[in-house]
Amino acid sequence: MFEQFTEKAREAVAVAQDALRRTNQNQMGTEHLLLGFLAQTEGTIPQIFSLLGIDIGEARIRINDVVELSRKEKPLGFVEQIFLTPRLKRAVDIATEEAKKLGDSFVGSEHLFLGILKEGEGAGAIVLKELGFTDNKIYGALRQIRQGGMNDEVLGASEGMLKKFSRDLTELAKEGKLDP
After folding, report:
1. 10 Å Cβ neighbour count for 35?
2. Chain centroid offset of residue 83 CA
3. Which of 10, 29, 104, 143 could covalently link to 85 via disulfide, CB atoms 3.0 to 4.6 Å apart?
4. What is the pLDDT of residue 76?
5. What are the φ/ψ torsions at residue 23 (nearest 5 degrees)?
């Protein structure tokens, strides 16, 4: 599922997984993924907050409070195995559709951020709505970001594809692994 995510999106998932492990939880919800995005200091999500004049620090405080409350829930099954909640699964499905709609090959942070908001009922969506986010505001910020040049996440995804489907012949030659 995560192989179609950009590097920044996968970083957010990793932060969410770490938060779950630290709290002995195994159900990743929209609040955990949002926590992962809010931990980032670079990329699309901090740019969206900046362009819309919404305090990312306040968002971090609110989502940390929500995640802290979720610690009281008992994990289902083995803690080592992480499950996506139905709301997060829906948000990921929405994000995948958003990526297609915007003509992107990969699911980036912006698509998942929109997915969390558009899912509408999860803790992540509630926090985003309380902060004043709407789909139209996010689309407007994305237009500004994309008009300013290529999104860092899209560029990162392109580099990832290059690494995935090519070989660095110069490096192989240096290591003596290139057979003439």
Report:
1. 25
2. 16
3. 29
4. 56
5. -105, 10
